[in-house]
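Quick start: load a record and inspect it. Here is Phasin domain-containing protein:
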Amino acid sequence: MDFGAFKSPQFDNASIDETISRIREMNERLIETSKTAGRASLDAYEATLKSMVDFSKKSAGGTQLDWLSALATAHAQFIQDLSAAYIKATREALK
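Running the structure step on this input writes:
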């Protein structure tokens, strides 16, 4: 078989640069859209946790057993502190 008849493809540098530019722009839009969706999910997660913690604190105040009230309050505070650290770190990652 004679490979001399095959020619290597010719590329237009301008079209290659345009293609690279379009791919780069598409990637940047995808990253920004993903960050926006991530922030929206994080906001919903934060609101859900806040509601849960508020309910736990309110429930803790409704019991007549001091030890149960203290346990529920400590648990609510633990969840609030832990989630605050997680949410802060996640927001930093989404910048």
